[in-house]
Amino acid sequence: MKILSFAVISSAVVACTNKNAADGDTDTTMMSESTEMTTSTASVVPGSYRNLSTGKTVYIIADPTTGWAVDSITKVPVEFYIDTTGDTIFQTGVVVNNAIMKSDGKWILDETKIKRDGDDIKIKNEDGSKVKIEADGDMKTKSADGKIKVEGDTVKVKPKN
Description:
With 161 residues, this protein is mostly beta strands. It has one helix spanning 2-14; strands at residues 47-51, 57-62, 69-71, 80-82, 88-90, 100-103, 106-109, 114-117, 120-124, 130-133, 139-143, 146-151, 154-159.
């Protein structure tokens, strides 16, 4: 529940709604001028979603081994899916609005906008907000409004003065 709450808060702070997700044709990305990165965490929340690759509604669960999104019936990994708010979500549970692109008919992470280092993910947005999600579950978000940090069971919010 803590991770879900943090994911919702951080999504509200750093995510941009993907207006093109419904038609699946275009996804653009906005980047920050800053090169500084910070840290953050997300997880797969079981529920019904639209699989971005197939357009079909699937019930997604977390794979018991990896924690990544899989179709609950076929157990096939679901790399990108869309929730009821229109957010595009990566298989690890992180919102990746405006940070994916279509290449050879397949949706992929735009590596110029999102960097992966093993299971760690770093995201920079044009509005200057930054998110880092670490494999151990720790997460940091930094925006013009302040900082949010999650370590274990502790959530710290530091508003900008």
